[in-house]
């Protein structure tokens, strides 16, 4: 049996196929987010000041092209996969077994809800 | 039921926790998990606040005032620190997961994480916090 923890982090799962897929998905999205999320944070905090980024500015400048919206939507998808699979690991570690199924269901529901809300705003905000 | 006669473990003080010698791997793991949960919590808030850009622009602009306030900038600096540590240490984990031979150098890699964290993070924090000094001046 493989160790649950190692100095590396969580070792590659050997039993469940779902755990193995989640393990790979977390790492692949991590690579994407290293670029996308850090670029997003730099853009919103270093290139532009938060005080200037009003709703109008987002509609007219930041999201004035389909390509920029697609980039941010890709980040949304990657961040939801990465963050919620990470929280799945946390839930598996700390949530008692008798309520774990319910907790994971709530977590997945929340992920689907956030993806829906984020996708809605990216698709419905008029292009200026 | 009979009470256990086993002696209670000694009560731990803050000093004991500070003197903890779990090793770099354990501390790196704990920071990674804490920063990950913190960023996850912000993602929940951020997707909802972006929804207001289309749904209620005035409410978004009001919220923006909180983000741009001194307290908001402090929180954003902490968010940036959590995000940056999680990203750098995450790369350390990915590198060691896919090239296990590098696990032997996990302490060195963790130190590189901290060098990059402070070398890039301090100027970054200055840029975010700078408007506070300008207001004070």
Describe the structure.
The complex is a heterodimer of chains A (128) and B (137). Chain A has helices at residues 17-47, 55-62, 66-94, 97-124. Chain A is mainly alpha-helical and 128 residues long. Chain A is elongated. By secondary structure, chain B is mainly α. Chain B has a single domain (24-136), classed as Fumarate reductase/succinate dehydrogenase, transmembrane subunit (3 helical TM bundles of succinate and fumarate reductases, Up-down Bundle). Chain B has five helices and no strands. In chain B, helix 3 (57-68) crosses helix 4 (70-98). The radius of gyration of chain B is 21 Å and the shape is extended. The mean pLDDT of chain B is 90. At the A-B interface, helix 1, helix 2, helix 3 and helix 4 of A face helix 2, helix 3, helix 4 and helix 5 of B.
Task: Report the CATH topology name of chain A.
Answer: 3 helical TM bundles of succinate and fumarate reductases
**Count of β-strands of chain A:** 0
Number of domains of chain A: 1
General shape of chain B: extended
What attributes characterize this protein structure?
heterodimer; A: 128 residues; mainly alpha; 3 helical TM bundles of succinate and fumarate reductases; 0% strand; B: 137 residues; 5 helices; 80% helix
Q: Helices and strands in order, then pairings?
A:
The complex is a heterodimer of chains A (about 130) and B (about 140).
Chain A lengths: L16 H31 L7 H8 L3 H29 L2 H28 L4
Helix pairs in contact in A: 1-3, 3-4
Chain B lengths: L13 H5 L5 H32 L1 H12 L1 H29 L7 H31 L1
Put the structure in a nutshell.
With 128 residues, chain A is mainly alpha-helical. In chain A, 75% of the residues lie in helices and 0% in strands.
């Amino acid at each position: 049996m493989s160790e649950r923890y190692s100095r590396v982090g969580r070792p590659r799962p050997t039993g469940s196929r779902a755990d193995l897929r989640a393990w790979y998905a977390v790492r692949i999205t991590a690579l994407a987010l290293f670029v996308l999320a850090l670029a997003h944070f730099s853009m919103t905090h270093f290139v532009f000041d938060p005080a200037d980024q009003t709703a109008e500015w987002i509609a007219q400048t930041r999201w004035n092209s389909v390509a920029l919206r697609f980039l941010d939507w890709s980040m949304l998808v990657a961040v939801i996969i990465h963050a919620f699979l990470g929280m799945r690991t946390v839930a598996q570690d700390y949530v008692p077994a008798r309520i774990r199924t319910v907790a994971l269901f709530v977590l997945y529901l929340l992920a689907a809800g956030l993806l829906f809300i984020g996708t809605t705003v990216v698709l419905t905000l008029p292009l200026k | 039921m009979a009470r256990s006669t086993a002696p209670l473990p000694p009560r731990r003080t803050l000093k004991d926790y500070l003197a903890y010698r779990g090793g770099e791997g354990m501390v790196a793991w704990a920071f990674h998990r804490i920063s990950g949960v913190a960023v996850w919590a912000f993602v929940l808030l951020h997707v909802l606040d972006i929804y207001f850009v289309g749904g209620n622009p005035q409410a978004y602009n009001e919220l923006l005032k909180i983000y741009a306030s001194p307290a908001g900038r402090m929180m954003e600096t902490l968010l940036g620190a959590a995000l940056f540590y999680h990203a750098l240490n995450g790369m350390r984990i990915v590198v060691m997961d896919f090239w296990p031979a590098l696990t032997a150098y996990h302490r060195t890699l963790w130190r590189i994480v901290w060098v990059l964290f402070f070398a890039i993070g301090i100027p970054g924090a200055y840029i975010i916090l700078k408007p506070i000094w300008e207001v004070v001046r």
